[in-house]
Amino acid sequence: MPVYRLATKPLYLVPLAIALLAGATHIALLRGQPSAAEIAAQQPAASGVLLDRHGEELYRFFDREDRVPVRLDAVPGNLINAVIAIEDREFHRHSGFSPTGILRALVSNLREGTIVEGGSTITQQLVKNRVLGSERTLLRKYREVILARRLERHLSKEEILEMYLNQVPWGGTAHGIEAAARHYFGRGAMSLSLSECAFLAGILRAPSSYSPFRVGNTAHLHRRRVVLNRMHEEGFITAQQRREALASSLRFAPQRMAMPAPHFTLYVKRLLEQRLGQHVLTTGGLTIHSSLNLALHRQVQDKVTQGVRRMFRHRVSNGAALVTDPRSGDILSMVGSIDYFARDIDGAVNLTLSLRQPGSTIKPLTYAMALERGRTATSILSDRPVALAIPDEGDYVPRNDDHLFRGAVTLREALAASRNIPAVNELVSIGVPQFIAKARELGVGGWEQQNAFRFALTLGSGEVRMLDLAQLYSVFPNLGVAVAPDPILRITARDGRLHYARPCATGPCDGQRSFQAGTAFLINSILSDDTARASTFGPRSDLYIGRHQVAAKTGTTDLLRDNWAVGYTSDLLALVWIGNNDGSSMRFVQSGHYGASTIWKDIMARLLVTRPAHRFPVPDDIVTATPCPGEVPPDCASCLRDREFYRRGTEPDAHCDSAQPPGELATTM
Asked: What is the pLDDT of residues 606-638, one digit of tens each?
């Protein structure tokens, strides 16, 4: 073989070797990198959005990136054009990589002395943000170019642009155009002006450097001018539009934690974390449609705050309120304190979820159980001194708030006028274990451990949460069926599909029947009877709401530690508490005249002002009749009543002849 052939043969292998080496290097560099289809299928973390019942945003739940994905058609054209003009003017002409763009960016930046535009295309930036990260090496840049070209072959320009606008960081926690618009201007992207679009496009390159929230920083104004000039050069806007945009001022949203209903928001957040998990809540892009009526809630918050401030001189420092629709359980307003941010009163504590003694607001449960056992509104009860022997503890001697005794009273007056001794006597007849079991059935638990309170439970010695008391009270306007408060109407996934819907979100809820309809109606009738409660509260007290029939009950605990007012119509239930978080005593409250009832009346009157006159519906098992004359004792002035409501089968015609005068109640258990 000729010598020259031996010497030159390896030269033929050099190009092949180089090609093989380049191919192997290319494969190695891209090993483990996602395909274009996988990149397109990736969904970045999306914030959970909490809305009120009318669609007004309450809060966004996120981990590190606040992002609300939107479709490209929900982004204003000026924003799209501004981004293309300043970030990638050849976007619609290149295939993912632009050598001329890199050269032009280098020249522009040298001429301006600062970063005017980058060399990476929009597609490259998308790949970097979604896949590769911000590492600055030649190898990373190589991967970026190759993956960008792959992505351009797999997706349309519009799809790439939509992904990019939803992906990129815009400063702080704001990622994506929708979150950026809300972060800087407090509203959605579609409402942005040309000037605001130019600002947002301009700060993309270096959000912290161009931040308008840095004191004395005006760099964003120069950057906006650069963007508007570039948009004019590219033909996106006219000279007149550019001048007008430059002349307009930028009004930025205040940078603070925006929670118009903080106690409600954090309550819902805890519920959702328990049901869904924190990761799903903060990254899954869920939209939570809550039951809160934000406009109504703000009115209730104002009423509570103003009402408590009027009572500061009486050592009242805090208050709370809950408004629900008892039919569905919708929480319309949740006011956990007079000021969430007030540290001196522990304002962040949500008092609608705190355990407090309910006082006499628990008495309607006692009398509902008595009515189920055959009592009627005209049953004669004893309001006389009584001592109840409790083994190993001595006698329990209940007292009325006014320290007086009225002898014989009807059940109607005993409940309406909130007499203590008749309520204790009825609990003796019912039995403490049965009372605790019924309370638990209606949503009030934990009294098993408080059995030492025994007969004082009917006077409110057992602690309750306001939220649970709302469930208990819902049994009366719902004519015997209790409905638990629920703050969530429905949850939709990021693609719009329904993730969860409350079964009774749009109407009355079916539930377990705890009382007969007639029993619940009798409680409604008694608690709305201004005449029957006048002996304690006087006529037309704070529990009276003009033309509306409204049932109401107050409660005050020992040493004035808690003061309550609870009242309702068929579709509104409002609960108010005032006191001090530390349990210290107030100086003065007077149920029905001054205290929680004053705030409650302000709230209820405001909610009912535009509604037609309300009357509780009369169920089929209720009849009216004249009370038996023989049942009216001579010392019971309140017993004289022409007509009364009775559950069918308990009316006088059925038992007048066999009626017996009330005997002495047992003094031992």
From this structure: 999 999 999 999 999 999 998 876 666 666 655
Question: Taking the chain, what is the end-to-end CA distance rounded to the nearest angstrom?
Answer: 124
Half-sphere CA count of 131, side-chain side, radius 13 A: 27
Instruction: Annotate 72-127 with DSSP letters as a single string.
Output: GGGS-HHHHHHHHHHH-TTTTTSSS--HHHHHHHHHHHHHHTS--S-SS-HHHHHH
- Give all strands (DSSP E) within 510-561, no chain letters: 551-556
Return the closest-CA partner of residue 195 out of 241, 229, 245, 233.
Answer: 245
**The pair of three-digit structure tokens given for residue 116, joined into one six-digit string:** 């005017």
528-542: average pLDDT? 91
Neighbouring C-beta atoms of residue 297, cutoff 10 Å: 23
CA–CA separation, 330 vs 351, rounded Å? 18
Q: What is the pLDDT of residues 393-409, one digit of tens each?
A: 778 899 998 889 999 99
CA distance 484 to 511: 9
Q: With 0-12 CB in 10 A as exposed, 13-18 as middle and 19+ as buried, what is 135?
A: exposed
3 state DSSP class of 75 = coil
Give the distance from CA 633 to its chain's centroid: 52
Query: How far is CA 373 from its chain centroid?
Result: 40
Euclidean distance between CA atoms 150 and 326, whole angstroms = 58
| 8 Å CB contact between 531 and 642 | no
DSSP for 462-475, please give it.
Answer: S-EEHHHHHHHHHT
Judge contact between 556 and 589, C-beta under 8 A.
yes
- Tokens coding 274: 């328990």
**Closest to 163 measured CA to CA, from 288, 281, 46, 32:** 46
Say whether pLDDT at 136 is over 60: no
pLDDT per position as a tens digit, 490-510: 999 988 899 999 887 666 677
Helix (H, G, I), strand (E, B) or coil at 79: helix
How many Cβ atoms from other residues are within 10 Å of residue 54's Cβ?
Answer: 10
DSSP assignment, residue 407? E
Pairing of strands 287-290, 48-51: parallel
Per-residue pLDDT, 85: 95
Of 636, 479, 444, the residue nearest 571 (C-alpha): 479
Cβ(84)–Cβ(91) below 8 Å: yes
